[in-house]
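Incident review: delayed structure delivery

Summary: a single-chain prediction request sat in the queue longer than the usual turnaround. Root cause was a stuck worker, restarted by the on-call engineer. No data loss occurred. The affected request and its eventual output are reproduced below so the record is complete for anyone auditing the incident later.

Affected input:
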Amino acid sequence: MKNSTKSIDKEEETENSRENFRIRLEARLKNDKLISAREQLNWSQKEVAIVLGISESIYGAIERIQFYPNKDLQKTIVNFYQTYKIHLN
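Output delivered after worker restart:
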């Protein structure tokens, strides 16, 4: 019985690891799109942050996936890039 429990625990751990990897990979891909969009404009993080009305450190943290913007800020960022015909989705 003990080995059976260990096997189930190992399967759950493996599944959790796969899910965490998928989430990290999705976040990294979205992050790359955000960075690429800014670079297409040849703008600095500071320049984008000023237009968005946030601090450079917050914008940088968003690009580094250290800060997750709320829905309003997400919409503001998407709309900003769409004005330059750059789509993030």
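Verification: The chain has one domain: 2-82.
Action items: add queue-age alerting; document worker restart procedure.
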